[in-house]
Known about the structure:
Layout: E1 2-6, H1 14-26, E2 30-35, H2 48-61, H3 66-83, H4 88-103, H5 109-134, E3 139-141, H6 144-147, H7 164-169, E4 177-181, E5 184-186, E6 192-194, H8 200-210, E7 215-220, E8 225-226, E9 238-239, E10 241-243, H9 244-252, H10 263-269, E11 273-277, E12 286-289, E13 301-314, H11 324-334, E14 339-341, E15 348-354, H12 360-374, E16 378-391, E17 398-399, H13 401-412, E18 418-420, E19 427-433, H14 437-450, E20 456-457
Parallel strand pairs: 1-2, 1-7, 2-4, 3-4, 7-11, 10-12
Antiparallel strand pairs: 5-6, 8-9, 11-12, 13-15, 13-16, 14-15, 16-19, 17-20, 18-19
Helix pairs in contact: 1-3, 2-3, 2-5, 3-4, 4-5, 8-10, 11-12, 13-14
Amino acid sequence: MKVAxxxxxxxxxxxxxxxxxxxxxxxxxxxxxxxxxxGKRFKEDIKMTDMLISLAxxxxxxxxxxxPLRRVVDRYASIANELGLDSSILDRIEHDVxxxxxxxxxxxxxxxxxxxxASGEDNNAxxxxxxxxxxxxxxxxxxxxxxxxxVTDEPGNARVLPESYKKIWKLRxxxxxxxxxxxxxxxxxxxxxxxxxxGSDITGSILAxxxxxxxxxxxxxxxxxxxxxxxxxxxxxxxxxxxxxxxxELSYAGFSVFHDEALEPVYKLGIPVxxxxxxxxxxxxxxxxxxxxxxxSPVVGIASDxxxxxxxxxxxxxxxxxxxxxxxxxxLEDEGISYEHTPSGIDNISVIIRENQFDQEVEQRVFDRIQxxxxxxxxxxxxxxxxVMVVGEGMNQSVGIAAKATEAFARANVNLExxxxxxxxxxxxxxxxxxxxxxxxxxxxxxxxxxxxxxxYSNI
Length: 460
Ligand code: ASP
C-alpha cells in the first residue's frame, strides 16, 4: 500500500485534478490520497489557505464577509465546473463554510482561524473524491477524525498523538481509494486543530506510518529535490537519494519542498519517502531513505535561511560558573522564546534565535534580566543574520570538507560570524550577514558540486 500526498499546486485547478486522477489510476497500490487546499496556479495567484485566513480575519473583527466568502466559493467553483461535477457539491461547500462560521462565532480567535483554515483542504478532499467517483473509481472522502488523526491542542501548531496510529491502521480494512484532507487533525475534545503551514506533508506522513505503507509519495511541482535553491543557482544538481537526517537538516534551513516536521512518523518505521512531480510523474524523483551510499557525494545539499539574530553574552570565567547556560536559557524560556543554537567559547556564549521572536520590547526585558541575574560583562544582539548549512552524511568520514567550505567563504569575500558543527556531523552551519548569503551559497555550490573534490575517507 502507498500513501500519496498532493500539494497545493498539484490540486490548484481542474487540469491539475485530472493529472492527479491519472496518477492515482496508474497504480492500484495508491490507496490513501492526501490533498492540500488549492494552491497557486500562477505566480501572483492567492492560495486558498491565505484566502481563508483573510475570511477568518473578517469573521473575527465582525467585518463584511460577503466578498472573501465569494472568493473562496468561486475558487472551488472554477475547479468543479470545469470538471463537470454536479453543482450540488458547490452548494454544499458554500453551505458548510457558512455553517462553520455561524457555529464558531463564540469561539476563541485561534480556534476560529484553525477551523476556517482547515476547511480549505477539507472541501478540496470532498471535490477530489467526487471527481474520482465521476471517473468510475471507488473513492471515499475520509475526515481526519474518522481516519484517527488525533493531535495536541495547539492551534496552528498541532502534533500528532501516539494513540492515532492504532486507529489509522484500521484504514487498511477499507475498500476503494481513501481521500483524506491534509493539514489538520482533531484534539481529544473533538476540536479541529491545524498543523503549522505546509502541514499536509505531516498528514501524509502520519497516515503512511499508521497504515505501515511501503512508500510515502509526496507529489509536488518539481522533478526532484535539488542540491541548492534553484533561485540562487540555476539548474542545480538533482538529488537522487538522501537520508532522513539530511532531509531534516536541509528543510530546517530553508528547503521548503518538504515540511521539516513531516519526517518524524515515517522515519521511525523506516518507510521511504519519494518526492515526485505531478506535472512529470515519469521523472524518478528523490528518495528519502534511512541509509545511502555517500561515497560519491559526501555533501548532498546546501541550504540557507535568513531572519536570525544572535544574542551574545560575555562574562569572564564563565566556564567556571556552574548553571550559567541553564539560567540564561531559562530567561528565554520565561519569555516563550525558542532557541536554535548555542555556540560557545570559554567566556562567552551566543544564543541564536529567530528574529521574529525578539522585538525591541522583549529585547529590553531579556537584556535587563541577563544583566541583573547573571551579572555579565557584556550582552548585545546582532540582527540580520542568515544561516548557511552544508549537509551530508558522508562528512563524518571524510577529510577536507570543512576546508573546502572556508575556502568558498574566503573566495566569496563573505565574513564568517559563526561556525557550528554538531557532534552528529551531518551538517556544518555557518552564520553570515544576510546580505552575503547568496554569494556564499554560490561559492559553496561551486566547490562541492562543480569542482573535482579531493576528499579522502578516513578508516573510522
Ligand atoms: N494549505 C496549507 C498551507 O498552505 C497546508 C499545505 O498546503 O500543506 O499551508
